[in-house]
TrEMBL record:
InterPro entries linked: 4Fe4S-binding_SPASM_dom, Aldolase_TIM, rSAM, rSAM_sf, Sulphatase_maturase_rSAM
Keyword list, A-Z: Iron, Iron-sulfur, Metal-binding, S-adenosyl-L-methionine
Keyword Metal-binding: yes
Presence of the UniProt keyword tRNA processing in the record: no
GO terms for MF: iron-sulfur cluster binding; metal ion binding; oxidoreductase activity
SUPFAM superfamilies in alphabetical order: Radical SAM enzymes
Start and end residues of each Radical SAM core domain: 92-316
Cofactor: [4Fe-4S] cluster
PANTHER family per record: ANAEROBIC SULFATASE-MATURATING ENZYME HOMOLOG ASLB-RELATED, RADICAL SAM DOMAIN PROTEIN
Protein name: Radical SAM domain iron-sulfur cluster-binding oxidoreductase
Pfam family, one: Radical_SAM
Domain of life where this protein originates: Bacteria
Amino acid sequence: MSDYHAFEQGGDNFLFFSRSARLYQLSEIASRMLSELRPPQPGLAHSPPPGLPPRHLSAGEAPLYAELCDLLHQELGVPLPVSRDPQTKPGENRFQTFSIYLAQNCNMACCYCWNCGGTFGKPGHLMGEKSAKRAITLILDLVQESNADKIFVNFYGGEPLLDFPILTKITLELLQHEAQLGKNFYLTLDTNGTLLEGPVAQFLARYFTQIGVSLDGNQRIHDIQRPGKYGESTWQLIVNNMKAFPNPKLLGIRATLTAFSDSYLETFRQLSTLGVSRIQLEYCHEPGYHKNPIFEKLNVPVERQLTELREFIDYYVDYISHYQETRDIPLASNVLDNITRIRRGSRFTKPCGAGTNTLAINSRGEIFPCIAFVDRDDFAMGKAGVDCGLSLHDTLSGFEVDGQLPCHSCWLRYDCAGGCYATHYDMTGNPRHPHPHYCESMKGRAEVYFYALTQMLNKCPWHLQRDPNSDPS
């Protein structure tokens, strides 16, 4: 079991302790001393670290060595985190987040689309009145017994705005029950932005709390990666729709980076000129680990990802450090989310609530643990309107990271908490078995985010006071 991790980033040395989530910056001498200590053996985490041979220590180094040993004693004595699943009363549940695959169809032909435009290789399908009514009833029934006060509903696809009349019906019906249920519904949408205009835009601006628009950087890159269904250019249409949107504060941009994209930093710079305050950048990844020649060419090697992320962090922290007010600064939302999460120091023993506080409903009314498991028949939990209970796949229940190979020996286990079930299933065929490439990427990113946290604390700590998960005003 590895309960601490030493690493170097940006010319500085760091020491992270898994149990307490504490991060220390080390001097060169302390880092050398630590590297010469033999790590504690499994089962002996509380034993004193072995001493260094006297010839390694000068008179001035002895106090530092004693201080380092005391630190290890203290940190390795912290109890292991335990599961913090909230208790529910009889007849109560924890469901809080619902994703609706409104349209399993799309009007675009993106080169890296992981779910084939929402179709998963099947004939396209829209939800329609009957399935929508059943989905509404399911959500309301579950919400009534939920111990959550805030309920989040996301419309997804494909392109969900292809089924706008049904989106309208579900939205108004859910909001109509807020007072009766004593709950607040927060409605969000992921869209390609091509239909974000006219009455559609007016409706969304009135009732929705967040709208994510996919845009992959400048016009040249975007139109190559995200053409229309018949190869037509889409960038200018999407940008025009965003500029005309009645409430731009609701809009955020999500960009997918491929091997042919500009760098992380350059893409951010391009998108930050569009007047949107929330920008999320993610690297393309192949959902299944079979050798797909398309994704082999599109995927960005982990080494390049980490280099670009470090370059971005150095630029971004220096950029925002000149501003005391964060309101008008483009927010790199996924980066700041990770930094804020690390700073909170929360410890997790399981990755998510797929199937326990999160559900996804496809356009036919079939129920799945989350959007990433939609249309995977082995993980179907039931069907809206059919009173047979919700059946969660065995591999998605009872998970604890300390009892799971190879996670139990990983220094990042209480941050990653075992990783994404669906990604593991795609890459290895088992939701509980992460692929080594996945782990390599997660650990590399964590080191960069730890470095980013120290940079922000040193240069602009006021930017960490803004909660990226707060409800948009």
